[in-house]
Design goal:
Strands 3-2-7 form a 3-stranded antiparallel sheet, with no helix packed on it. Strands 1-4 form a two-stranded antiparallel ribbon. Strands 5-6 form a two-stranded antiparallel ribbon. Helix content is about 25%, strand content about 15%. The protein has about 450 residues and is α+β, with helices and mostly antiparallel strands. The chain has one domain.
Length: about 450
């Protein structure tokens, strides 16, 4: 079995009966940072509970920049002008509503919270994906007046029927994405398109505080132990360091830091330049885009940008619910017995965070190894991103899953939100997770229900 960190090793060796003796610290998945006070519809909006007084003002200022709608330049609101000219949303919270998870749009809805990554075959600068010469690396379906939007997204779902081993039927939704009305010339037949929904924002600073060497120590890229699991790290370009670094954030671990993830979202999603990415993303053929007024250079000032990064780093993970309930305890045992914990590593201990001591030396329970895994043909997007190939995705953290419905009013999961429930998300697993998926399909209904109860407690 792939080697786990010492904090997770006890679970890896447990039998079902032994696993029922839950580690009490897992009730507080963020350690001392855990949100124990604000649950329900605002469960993802709380700052970490041990936030130092000197960081409180910056948190609330960052919250303001995260939630406020940006406007086109020039405007009297100079701190928040510079939107677009091409964009996907007018604010961070338009996609991460209440700091939560987006869902695919229903018919007739704006495509807020879902975007399409674009590239063409080949390798771009610094080894990353090669963006289209005109449309770049992300389709932007909205634009300022007098600037043509890049195109419209249409989603068509096919239903795939299936059956559990006990005869219980289920269906899975398989989406197809079509780009219509391309405004800047036809799209090539070999265009690589990858849909992504916005995930919840909680716990990012804790994940960033895990030492690189700890994550690398769990990787087994060549499956040396022959367990069928070959987690790999992604090496991605760090704009600040001007070097390749360990990828941590994004659905394919394609960003090295929260700072660069935030800067990428400002530029790609809202057309806002920042200290990290100070140049507009308009391509040569997009003349109206290039001729539009800017909101300064950069459009989000360094102080406001830093506060938004801090805000994104210290949103707290909520306390677990129904902790110790019989079905939750049984479900945790099944989680390990089915092999889910092989990739969804339960626990880590954070290292010393360089600027936020509140995040340092915390035992946390995110249920992720932070590595890339082959998830099979069913979830493949065919689009490489640095070291990640078209079948690989980063293991997402599971903390907060049970509160997505409370916060965002839906239960849509996976990278494009195709799964309408946690059970459907499991049933979409393939590749390295095929054995775990088949074990779930073969399990008695009571065991399946217990596993879902455990996941909903996280």
């Amino acid at each position: 079995m792939r080697r786990l960190l010492p904090t997770a090793l006890a679970f890896a060796a447990c039998t079902a009966d032994e696993t029922a003796l839950i580690d009490a610290s897992s009730r507080l998945p963020g350690g001392a940072t855990t949100n124990t006070l604000l649950l329900g519809s605002n469960a993802f909006a709380s700052p970490i509970e041990n936030l130092l007084p000197e960081h409180e003002g910056d948190f609330f200022s960052g919250n303001s920049f995260f939630n406020a709608a940006w406007v086109s330049a020039p405007a009297s609101t100079t701190a928040r002008d510079g939107l677009g000219p091409l964009f996907n949303a007018r604010s961070c919270s338009a996609c991460h509503f209440k700091d939560g998870r987006a869902q695919p749009p229903a018919n007739g809805e704006d495509h807020l919270g879902l975007l399409l990554r674009l590239s063409i075959p080949g390798t771009g600068p610094e080894g990353g994906p090669l963006g289209h010469a005109t449309y770049g690396g992300q389709l932007q379906p909205f634009a300022l007046p007098d600037v043509p939007a890049e195109g419209a997204i249409t989603i068509t779902n096919a239903e795939i029927p299936g059956t559990y081993s006990d005869g219980t039927p289920y269906t899975l939704l398989s989406p197809t994405y079509t780009i219509g009305d391309p405004a800047y010339g036809p799209l090539p037949d070999d265009l690589l398109v990858s849909p992504r929904v916005a995930p919840q924002m909680i716990g990012l600073g804790l994940l960033e505080a895990i030492d690189d060497s700890a994550i690398r120590a769990t990787a087994d890229p060549d499956d040396a132990d022959n367990d069928g699991i070959s987690g790999r790290v992604n090496e991605v370009w760090d704009q600040q360091a001007q070097a390749l670094r360990l990828g941590r954030f994004g659905w394919k671990a394609d960003q090295p830091s929260i700072r660069q993830q935030v800067a990428g979202a400002f530029l790609g999603d809202m057309g806002i330049t920042s200290p990290v990415f100070p140049e507009e993303a308009c391509s040569e053929p997009q003349t109206e885009c290039r001729a539009s007024a800017t909101g300064g250079a950069p459009e989000i000032e360094p102080d406001a940008f830093d506060k938004t990064v801090l805000y994104s780093s210290v949103l707290a993970v909520p306390v677990r619910r129904r902790f110790g309930a019989a079905d939750v305890v049984a479900g945790e045992a099944h989680f390990h017995d089915l092999g889910c914990a092989t990739c969804h590593t339960p626990s880590w201990t954070t290292d010393v965070h360089p600027s936020l001591p509140e995040l340092s030396n915390q035992r946390i329970w995110p249920y992720t190894d932070q590595l890339l895994h082959d998830m099979g043909d069913g979830l493949a997007d065919g689009r490489p991103v640095f070291a990640a190939d078209g079948r690989e995705w980063k293991t997402p953290p599971l903390w907060g899953l049970g509160l997505v419905d409370d916060v965002n009013g839906h239960t849509r999961f996976l990278h494009d939100g195709r799964a309408r429930s946690l059970a459907e998300a499991i049933l979409w697993h393939g590749g390295e997770a095929e054995a775990a998926k088949q074990a779930f399909r073969a399990a008695p209904a009571a065991d399946r229900d217990a596993l879902i109860a455990f996941l909903e407690s996280l």
